[in-house]
Design brief:
With 371 residues, this protein is of the alpha+beta class. It folds into 2 domains: 228 residues, no CATH class; 102 residues, no CATH class. It has 11 helices and 6 strands. Helix 1 runs antiparallel to helix 2, helix 1 packs parallel to helix 5 and helix 7 runs antiparallel to helix 8.
């Protein structure tokens, strides 16, 4: 119990120090990256600083496993340099018990990683992008020539209706402009075409469309593509749709910055519309596997304690730990992109980096025990 508290205190202090150093570095690089946009439509330095501050929870989530690894390496290397680790081993503390102690120390870090990644970072990242676009007077979909296209399918009393929806602009508050909706029946005959200037979401499953024009097509004669049509102007119309603002918010942040719940909802939407969801499934499984990888990272620090000072100074061990942390981060990114390109199974794509690091840990422990 005393050894566990001692290890926990030393590792937590070292990991927090490393994490703060990384956050300062990432914040500085992010500010530098935003400098070219200052004075662009009123975008000022104080707004840049606020935007960078809002992005820090996402960096905390990404850097916690690396900071924990480096903090653990530093702590164990210092213990080895002061012969404390040798004393612990002579008192009967074997490798299995040491691994158990390190895993117990890693539990708070893993819980914190999951909490920040699921509830704090996604909301803050989404708000950060909304704030940035408002500050720069940008629209979400302004870079698309024809706007944003979304497919939606739902069952009605008349049968299954497939809708192809085009939004000219999506605002940060999730209101939409220049809406065009094409509704097709089960045989993919065009039933209605709806066009509106502006739309606002009405919970739970409705949108209020303003200044709308609806065109109804009569396709009862199968020998004719369009037997007749009728156009009606409507100042305001309620549009029933499962399309939720959370789906539109996917445009604001990348999949790896979304919460697991948001990813599940969007994957269901894509599957129901027969669209590819591999990228978002990988993000979902990675969201679940990433906190567990922290246990592998903290255990990977144990071999550094077995190395004597003559085999390498404390600074060299810390540098090696940093390189391993960077390697793990790059490995995650590599498998993410390769998995998306080659449509690998999402679960395997997410866990393979952690499995490879676990194998490296076992090989390193086996090597130092044989020395």
């Amino acid at each position: 119990m005393i050894v566990r508290r001692y290890l926990a205190r030393e590792i937590i202090v070292a990991a927090v120090f490393v994490l703060l150093a990384f956050l300062v570095l990432f914040a500085f690089l992010e500010v530098v990256g935003e400098l070219e946009n200052i004075n662009n439509r009123g975008y000022q330095l104080q707004q840049v600083m606020y935007y960078v501050l809002l992005n820090q929870p996402q960096h905390v989530y990404e850097l916690l496993p690396i900071a924990t690894l480096i903090g653990a390496v530093y702590t164990l290397a210092q213990m080895a340099a002061r012969s404390e680790f040798t004393i612990l081993r002579m008192s009967g503390l074997d490798t299995r018990l040491l691994i158990s102690l390190l895993l117990q120390v890693g539990i708070p870090f893993a819980v914190l990683t999951f909490v920040v990644g699921e509830w704090v970072a996604p909301e803050m990242s989404r708000y950060a992008e909304q704030y940035r676009m408002q500050a720069r007077e940008q629209m979400v979909a302004q870079d698309f020539r024809t706007g944003l296209w979304i497919r939606d399918a739902q069952a009605t009393a008349q049968g299954r209706v497939t809708s192809f929806i085009n939004f000219g602009q999506v605002h940060p508050d999730n209101s939409i402009d220049r809406i065009r909706i094409y509704n097709f029946d089960e045989q993919f005959h065009l039933q209605t075409y709806l066009e509106a200037e502006h739309g606002e979401y009405l919970p739970p499953n409705q949108w209020r469309l303003l200044n709308a024009t609806r065109t109804d097509f009569d396709n009862r004669d199968p020998t004719q593509p369009v037997s007749g049509m009728k156009t009606v102007k409507i100042p305001e119309q309620v549009w029933q749709s499962r399309l939720h603002p959370d789906i539109l918010s996917v445009l604001l942040v990348s999949p790896e910055k979304m919460s697991a719940l948001s990813l599940v909802n969007y994957i269901r939407h894509l599957r129901s519309n027969l669209q590819k969801s591999n990228r978002y499934e990988i993000a979902f499984w990675n969201k679940l596997a990433y906190p567990l990888a922290l246990f592998v990272m903290i255990t990977l620090a144990l071999p550094f304690a077995y190395l004597q000072v003559r085999s390498g100074s404390v600074s060299l061990k810390i540098f090696t730990g940093i390189m391993i942390g960077v390697f793990f981060h790059l490995l995650n990114s590599l498998f993410w992109h390769v998995g998306v390109l080659n449509t690998w199974p999402p679960f395997l794509t997410a866990i393979l980096p952690g499995v490879l690091m676990l194998m490296l840990t076992l090989v390193a422990l086996r090597w130092v025990e044989r020395r």
